[in-house]
């Protein structure tokens, strides 16, 4: 008996193979996504975020802070990484300068090491308080009006200003390159400079000098030397001139003090009219030291002003090329002036 034709029958393929393949594909993409979460949020970003890690923050809290600041993609990668390398217990409080372009490992390393954000400000030797304030303001450390209020009174421990002192802080803000923590206030910045002066100058130099000058007098004299010989190459000779004039009761007749008295930059040489400016800082009109420093001298000039050269010079003339001509008598000084004029001050 011939059985009827039932048609071609299809064999049913097992479905587990399809599911396994789909699972592998899904796992592959999940793995890619997981790996991507540990990479920078925005590799090409130039944005900067200042992020505050509060004292006692847990890894979870820090991660949430970073995510809200837009620095990392997700919370959990930071949590996992900080626990994996056991850095979750070593997170340091502070303000951090971070960017979405940073790898997660770099961000964690900064917070673990305590590499908090700093603002670097270079204060050159011979800068006045007004010039220092301008640099601090440009570095976003406070506003001008905040400094104006602080400048009216000396900081704790500073010499009491003599009558006629324009700025009680002048002379006592040590010139150096400072790294201020982000968020430093104007008072904190000025106090740091004053404390540096106390440590390096007052205690480091003056306390062991046996100088006959008071601290204020010495710094005032040094500030004039700084202005007259900014290079410091002949500072001990310049200092000697002022010591000799002081001992002889002569007026300093320093152009630098007149420029300070005028109170604004003067291009070129001073005129005869400039020399008559009414100010206690005008050493053409007033004998002896001015009431206070005219700038903030550097360490080398301060040292030179403690140990002036043993010379009898009473006069000096600064040439345009930086050379300084010294003289003991007025006749010698006139000869130096004639020499300078003959060479056009070169």
UniProtKB/TrEMBL annotation:
EC numbers on record: 4.2.2.29
Listed GO biological process terms: cell wall organization; peptidoglycan biosynthetic process
Compartments where located: Cell membrane
Membrane topology: Single-pass membrane protein
Site (Important for catalytic activity): 228
Gene Ontology MF terms: lytic endotransglycosylase activity
This protein's UniProt keywords: Cell membrane, Cell wall biogenesis/degradation, Lyase, Membrane, Transmembrane, Transmembrane helix
Domain of life the protein comes from: Bacteria
TM annotation in the entry: 16-35
Swiss-Prot/TrEMBL catalytic activity: a peptidoglycan chain = a peptidoglycan chain with N-acetyl-1,6-anhydromuramyl-[peptide] at the reducing end + a peptidoglycan chain with N-acetylglucosamine at the non-reducing end
One cellular-component annotation, GO: plasma membrane
Role noted for this protein: Functions as a peptidoglycan terminase that cleaves nascent peptidoglycan strands endolytically to terminate their elongation.
Protein family per UniProt: Belongs to the transglycosylase MltG family.
Descriptive protein name: Endolytic murein transglycosylase
Organism of provenance: Sulfobacillus harzensis
Lineage, top ranks: Bacteria, Bacillati, Bacillota, Clostridia, Eubacteriales
């Amino acid at each position: 008996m011939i059985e009827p034709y039932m048609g071609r029958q299809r064999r049913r393929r097992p479905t587990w193979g399809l599911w396994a393949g789909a699972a592998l594909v899904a796992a592959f993409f999940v793995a890619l996504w997981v790996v991507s979460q540990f990479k920078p949020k925005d590799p090409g970003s130039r944005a900067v975020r200042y992020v505050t890690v509060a004292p006692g923050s847990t890894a979870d809290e820090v991660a949430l802070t970073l995510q809200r600041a837009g620095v990392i993609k997700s919370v959990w990668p930071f949590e996992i990484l900080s626990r994996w390398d056991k850095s979750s217990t070593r997170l340091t409080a502070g303000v951090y300068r971070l960017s979405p372009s940073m790898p997660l490992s770099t961000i964690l390393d900064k917070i673990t090491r305590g590499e908090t954000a700093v603002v670097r400000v270079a204060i050159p030797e011979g800068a006045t308080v007004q010039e220092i304030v301008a640099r601090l303001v440009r570095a976003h450390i406070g506003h001008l009006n905040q400094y104006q209020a602080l400048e009216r009174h000396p900081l704790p421990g500073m010499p009491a200003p003599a009558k006629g002192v324009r700025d009680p802080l002048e002379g006592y803000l040590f010139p150096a390159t400072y790294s201020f923590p982000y968020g430093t206030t104007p008072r904190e910045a000025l106090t740091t400079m004053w404390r540096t002066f106390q440590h390096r100058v007052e205690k480091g130099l003056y306390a062991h000098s046996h100088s006959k000058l008071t601290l204020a007098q010495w710094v005032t004299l040094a500030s004039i030397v700084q202005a007259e010989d900014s290079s410091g190459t002949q500072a001990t000779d310049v200092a000697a001139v002022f010591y000799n004039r002081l001992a002889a009761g002569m007026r300093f007749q320093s152009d630098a003090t007149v420029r300070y008295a005028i109170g604004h930059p003067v291009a070129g040489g001073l005129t005869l009219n400039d020399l008559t400016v009414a100010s206690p800082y005008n050493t053409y009109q007033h004998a002896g030291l001015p009431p206070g420093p005219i700038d903030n001298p550097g360490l080398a000039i301060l040292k030179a002003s403690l140990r002036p050269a043993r010379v009898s010079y009473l006069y000096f003339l600064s040439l345009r090329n930086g050379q300084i001509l010294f003289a003991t008598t007025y006749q010698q000084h006139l000869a130096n002036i004639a020499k300078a004029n003959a060479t056009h001050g070169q």
